[in-house]
């Protein structure tokens, strides 16, 4: 890894089904975060609405523009072709589907299919392993992702307020099992569906399980950290 990586986890206010409003909120968060990578919650562009259509990338111009201004990469949640629950990688050049959720929960299988495989993005020499919500509670998914060689495990979540403790447990387990940084972006406030309130408390954990940045439970909050290589995250050269 050539240099430190600035990473943020954001929990913007969400308007269910309103991709245009949510794209503006994402752009505002990216400008406020001023980070190389900004991670957003599961289905952050539509809210947790399982009937929402696949997001039209043409509506995401405000996010592309914000990323172009700051040299940022945004990892946002959206329904994607498949259909699946996806993580979009958005930067100044445009939008691509980076990952599809492998482990569906609740009513999700009625609307979506599982993603085929784990995925990794490389940014500034750092390898980011990707997950979405229930994936974080399935050790096989994080293990398969870590096996690809990762330095950070990042995921978008949506949880009820009483499930905040589960987020903490999962983050610490992934960090301990694989010796990697962990970054969870968790919805705060109403998130659509039956999520009238959500857990918030997005966070970033070190490879030894310490919280190094944390948001509260209020929509609009951001947690940001500068990640530096540690002995646990140094990978051997090929």
Task: Give the topology, please.
Elements: E1 5-10, H1 19-33, E2 37-39, H2 61-70, E3 73-80, E4 84-91, E5 94-100, H3 108-111, E6 120-123, E7 126-132, H4 139-146, E8 152-157, H5 164-178, E9 181-186, E10 203-205, E11 211-214, E12 222-227
Parallel strand pairs: 1-2, 2-3, 7-8, 8-9
Antiparallel strand pairs: 1-12, 3-4, 4-5, 6-7, 9-10, 10-11
Helix pairs in contact: 1-2
Give an overview in words.
The chain is of the alpha/beta class and 238 residues long. It has a single domain, classed as Nitrilase/N-carbamoyl-D-aminoacid amidohydrolase (4-Layer Sandwich). The protein has five helices and twelve strands. The strands form two sheets. A six-stranded mixed sheet has the order 5-4-3-2-1-12. Helix 1 runs parallel beside helix 2 (61-70).
